[in-house]
């Protein structure tokens, strides 16, 4: 069987729901459908989830938000109208939403979270009604009834281990299950959401619990591209890549698939296929545990900006036991995560995301490193971009690094740092942000445009 | 003024001492001479220091070692004979050595250390006698009288801060000071040696204390070479390099100058010149605080084997605050130092020297990482060599990395890892030990044999 997840733009209008129904009903293996809240119908539109957040906030302030409630309900009503559904489901959605809005407001973030989660929950009910209207044996399943239990952190719920066992029982049910994405319940019965794009997580958890043969993730692009299309136009599509490669790509700017969502599928070795609701015949991209590397060693070029580097030098640092550990302890004391630590003999560089540090934190860190570790020199460089060449097959390919560095050199990009560990799933280059696009272009040309030797 | 240090091979015979006298007396700035114990006279010979260690050990076992005492004293006597010196100084050396051998044996390592140190001490007295015999105003100065105080760890003495102030008073003395290298005294009056090649350290401390204009280090090679001559024949000599470059080179297999010895000179910005006693007109190599990079970005290629790499992967490692710090803590608990930590998104590789770990430690470390950090995969790879391209001017040279990686790729060397931090004093490549020489050849050819663009 297959778990199929549809994103918000795939479910934004009646016309989109018709496509979704066609896709699901064209393959009897597609028995579990995970739905998002209605997304944008056009570039200026607002997602239902965002309307819900505003609505909850207004309720917290004024105890009512009649216009927002109507605009939310009308989003569902428009779809129902378009599809010729009865008003029953819309009445149900309106009453349920109003009941939620009148709920316990003692913990505002939990209150907002439950309202936010209703976007998916209500849409699952609407989708189930539409599928039945089309003659399918489809029904809404509540995450509560199915036993999808999560931790209590709003917006960052973690699945509880027993959920997998609970959800596996859905296998016995007949027909098509319509399951709302994005949230679960804590043990007190509160709705708690996963991190943003959390419907991907729900689908992945279900795929794992049900030992699905495939987890299909329908979105609005034909495939994962080998490079960011906003930097390089018409880039090559990736047909197949490994979990590790996907993770490395999504780390540095690829946002097609929520990387945290890969974990449950990864743990159960379930392939994840990314497809386009608007073009379901396109091959899509499949994320697999292993792949052969017939398509060349590199699958993609990713980049992300907003990094900084802290450079620390101290003569004979190399002989000091515990130096590196103490540097990392100082970062940890301020809850900072670092990305990489390239090092010379007597110096180390720490690459971290700038947005974790304001000036106060930065100054405190710098002072502590200087004073407590008696460093000779501590400097920080801002506006660093990381550019990654990703491909699991690089490991056994002698020339990959040479090709990459030559491409950067030919493009007059100065490499600020390089990081390549034993895994060789990726080579990371640090460059100045001003040279990021130049670097991505150069690497894309080197690995995808030129004939590979 | 200049502090001049002579190594053991420069002081092994009377003929060598004649060269030393010529060198010192040819320049009135050479007023402080640091001497080593007599070294090897030929490839089969034994250094006096090694004879002394054996002699001390035999004394500890049997309370006497008449033959070893004679062979030690005869080394000095042969030199005195060759130079036509009176027997007075030899008698003095013999009685002093015998007195030391009858000394306190309660702490065997300290006992051996004091015997070991006498090699330099006695030779300084002999050299001073010879210089006076030649008509020079030269005299032996005892480290004790001069106030060279050190910590009490035999074979790894660290200079006490007050020594610099004490030694600075030598500046007022007239004539040529002959100062024994390799040891100082702790506050109880015990002779304690520096680490091996410690005469370099003594010279560097004196150069700092006396604010010398130059610290000349006479040895038996014309210069520091840009690559190990046992791998590449007739390599290019290095005329000038920075402390940092010297340190990076000496880290990975360059043993011309003891890198710990650079510190005192480095702290006082005193240039260090490496020259050849047997060819004093050769230009030598000068270690300086800064250099211009007119000779190309790279000064040398160094390599060293005997490393291993521990590869750790864990899905979403990157999001775990404290992961890296906890890995380093595990290493620190076993007093292990690491060299580099290249990393991917969800993996890190730790490069460390194999000789720190036996199988038991290795297994313990691996198990702790696996269990305590819940890693997905922990593997160790042995027989790794590190090959370094060193040059402070690489920082602003776009093509250096490309040139290096292309050279390795053309030579079919697989790069296991790369490490290049912000300092860019060096780029480190990890390769399999079996490919070490191949890699060094390829890099040397790329940076020194081909015309540089």
From TrEMBL, chains A, B:
The protein's Enzyme Commission number: 2.7.2.4
Keyword Transferase set for record: yes
Keyword Amino-acid biosynthesis: yes
Domain of life from the UniProt record: Bacteria
NCBIfam families: asp_kinases, PRK09034.1
Function summary: Catalyzes the phosphorylation of the beta-carboxyl group of aspartic acid with ATP to yield 4-phospho-L-aspartate, which is involved in the branched biosynthetic pathway leading to the biosynthesis of amino acids threonine, isoleucine and methionine.
UniProt name for this protein: Aspartokinase
Origin species: Bacillus changyiensis
């Amino acid at each position: 069987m297959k778990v199929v997840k549809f994103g918000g733009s795939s479910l934004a209008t009646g016309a989109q729901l018709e496509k979704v129904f066609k896709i699901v009903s064209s393959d009897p293996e597609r028995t579990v459908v995970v739905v998002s809240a209605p997304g944008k119908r056009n570039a200026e539109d607002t997602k239902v989830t965002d309307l819900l957040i505003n609505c909850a906030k207004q309720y917290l302030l004024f105890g009512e938000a009649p216009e927002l409630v109507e605009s939310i309900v009308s989003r569902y009503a428009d779809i129902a109208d378009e599809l010729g559904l009865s008003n029953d489901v819309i009445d149900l959605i309106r009453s349920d939403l109003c009941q939620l809005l009148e709920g316990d407001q003692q913990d505002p973030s939990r209150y907002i979270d439950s309202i936010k989660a209703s976007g998916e929950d209500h849409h699952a009910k609407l989708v189930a009604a539409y599928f039945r209207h089309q003659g399918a044996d489809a029904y809404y399943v509540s995450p509560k009834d199915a036993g999808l239990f999560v931790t209590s952190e709003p917006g960052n719920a973690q699945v509880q281990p027993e959920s997998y066992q609970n959800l596996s029982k859905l296998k016995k049910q007949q027909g098509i299950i319509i399951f709302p994405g994005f949230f679960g319940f804590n043990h007190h019965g509160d709705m708690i959401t996963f991190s943003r794009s959390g419907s991907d997580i729900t689908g992945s958890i279900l795929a794992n619990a049900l030992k699905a043969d495939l987890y299909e993730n329908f979105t609005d692009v034909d495939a994962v591209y080998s490079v960011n299309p906003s930097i390089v136009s018409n880039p090559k599509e990736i047909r197949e890549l490994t979990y590790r490669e996907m993770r490395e790509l999504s780390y540095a700017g690829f946002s097609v698939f929520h990387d945290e969502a890969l974990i449950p599928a990864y743990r159960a070795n379930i392939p994840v296929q990314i497809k386009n609701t608007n073009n379901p015949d396109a091959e899509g991209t499949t994320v697999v545990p292993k792949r052969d590397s017939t398509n060349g060693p590199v699958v993609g070029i990713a980049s992300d900006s907003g990094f900084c580097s802290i450079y620390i030098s101290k003569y004979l640092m190399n002989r000091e036991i515990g130096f590196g550990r103490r540097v990392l302890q100082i970062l940890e004391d301020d809850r900072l995560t670092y990305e990489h630590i390239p090092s010379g003999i007597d110096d180390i560089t720490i690459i971290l995301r700038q947005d974790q540090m304001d000036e106060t934190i930065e100054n405190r860190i710098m002072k502590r490193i200087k004073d407590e570790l008696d460093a000779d020199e501590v400097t920080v460089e801002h506006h660093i971009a990381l550019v990654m060449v990703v491909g699991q097959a690089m490991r056994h390919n002698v020339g990959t690094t040479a090709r990459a560095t030559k491409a950067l050199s030919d493009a007059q990009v100065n490499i600020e740092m390089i990081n390549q560990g034993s895994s060789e799933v990726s080579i990371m280059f640090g460059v100045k942000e001003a040279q990021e696009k130049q670097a991505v272009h150069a690497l894309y040309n080197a690995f995808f445009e030129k004939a590979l030797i």
